[in-house]
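This section describes the prediction task in plain terms. A model, or a person checking by hand, is given the sequence of a single protein chain and must write out its three-dimensional structure as a string of tokens. No templates, partner chains or ligands are provided. The sample shown here is typical of the held-out split.
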Amino acid sequence: MTLRSDAAAMLADLQTLRRDLHRIPEIGLHLPRTQDRVLAALDGLPLEITLGKNLSSITAVLRGTKPGGTVLLRGDMDALPVTEASGEEFTSTLDGAMHACGHDLHTAGLAGAARLLAARRQDLPGDVVFMFQPGEEGWDGAGHMIDEGVLTASGRPVDAAYGLHVSAASYAKGQFTARPGTLMAASGALEVRVKGDGGHGSSPHDARDPIPAACEMVTALQTMVTRTFDVFDPVVITVGSFHAGTRRNIIPDDAVFEATLRSFSPEVAARVGERAEQVCRGIAQAHGLDIEVTFEPEYPATVNDADAYAFVAGTIRDVFGEERFTEMADPITGSEDFSRVLERVPGAYLFLGACPGDPASAPDNHSPRARFDDSVLGDGAALLAELAVRRLALLAG
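The expected answer:
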């Protein structure tokens, strides 16, 4: 029996797990109900399990019976602060929380890979670390798990790492895609408070109005992108939050906005926050206003090792057929904390289409209407297991 056929045989169980998780979405680093359900799914497998100290993580080590290297497989478990409107029968039971990014599929797929590999433990030359991670959606769960030792959980450093992300749109169901080098953007958060002196809207000259200056900053940041950074090493800035005032005839004391900054190279990631701060401070000074501005780097760019990418692409083509894999032409501007792992370990991240309809018109990840076809779970689990088996064999020579 092949890994793919064994995974197909357990598909119904994986779908049940995924749908159970979908009903109980939890946000952030602390996911007690999710952790309990995953532990139940792993119960009875020959795994050495360690729970996180400061987060609801699960690190499970499968020891092969032969000496060799260590491969890490990762699945993230947290949900988003979104009220579900997908219409699924197994919809979220919690208002304001939803598995809108497919992490429930990631978790079920990783549990499936653990079952597949546990059944082949006698043939494994080395160990597999299963990284069940909370807090991917802005909480740096990968960083926390690294701090708690996930990369040395087997007793030696991990030799290779792989992760898989499902897509509700963009890619046809069952289609795998990735690229060598930069796959996803680095991200950072800009927070700005422009401080003036409030007054009556009829007499702006008697006040220090922060709103026009804040508006000028928003547009100047876009100009900064095109006049400071090379178009072939792009930057994306989006102001997603802007708050000021209470009524049309009142000049407020302050105006506050927040932006996300995305970039694709370490050089630009190191510069973009500082330059954005300079632009905002300069405009505030020109208007005679005070300002508080901070830039907080979040995740580095997700970069696939070239050899690891070639290994993943070759494995997919061999197991599933040439037509099931497409190389991405360009990186995407989303960010991902698996980048923390790939900074330290050669590995690769890839995408799997899970769209139940037309990927060109389907609601995308993070939408309250996002839907995922969990019939792809068998192939996702089989691929993760296949990558571990083949990589351990290569490491063993």
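For orientation: The CA atoms of residues 239 and 375 lie 37 Å apart.
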